[in-house]
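Example record

One chain of 196 residues, shown exactly as stored in the release files.
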Amino acid sequence: MKMPSGKLKFAVMGGIALAFVAIAELSGLRQNVFPSEERIQSELGSLKKAQAQLQKELELSAELKLRRELFVAGAKDYWLPRRDGKPETEIPKAVNHAAKLTGLKISSLGEIRQVKVSEGISVMELSVSANDSVETVTRFMAEMYRATPRMRWQRCQLRPETGKDAKGVSLSGSISFVCISDECLAGLIDSGKPRS
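Predicted C-alpha cells for this chain:
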C-alpha cells in the first residue's frame, strides 16, 4: 500500500529529528545548547574569576606605567655616566667648582663611595669638610643643591668653629646622588643630550 506524500514527508522529517536528537545526545551538543543550571553557575564562577584576574592585571599594569613615567620624569636628577661622565672624576670637579664660585675653602674631600640599590642603580656619596663663614657655607650648600644631576646633602652637620680666632662654622657632610649605570635604563631616560 502506498503512503500519501504528506505522511511520507512527515515520517522522514520525524526520522531526521530523531537522528539529530540521538547525535546531539551522543556528542554532548545538547548540553552546550541547553546547559544545566549547575553548568551555568560553574561557567559564571569561572568568568568572575577571570574578570577579577584581569582587573588585577590592569591595576598592576597601570601602577607599572606610573612608576615608569615617574622614573623617566626624574631623568635630570640621575647621574648617567654616558651623559655626565665618570662620577669618580666629575663629582669632585663639580664640588671644587661650586667652592670656587662661592669662595669656600674646602678642608677635605673623601673618596666616592657606592651603595648598590639594584642591578645598574647605585647611590653614590662623597664626604666634604670645610670651614668658613656662615654666609659662604650656606651659598656653597645651595650651589651644590642646584647642581644637575641632583645632589642631596646627607648627614650634614654645621658647628661653630672652636678656638681663639673662631669666626665661622665647620661643615661636614656627604653629598649623595643616584647613578644609573645600566645602559637599558640610561637609554630609557636619556635623550642623548648633554645636561643643562
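Notes: The beta strands are 78-79, 106-109, 113-118, 121-132, 152-160, 169-180.
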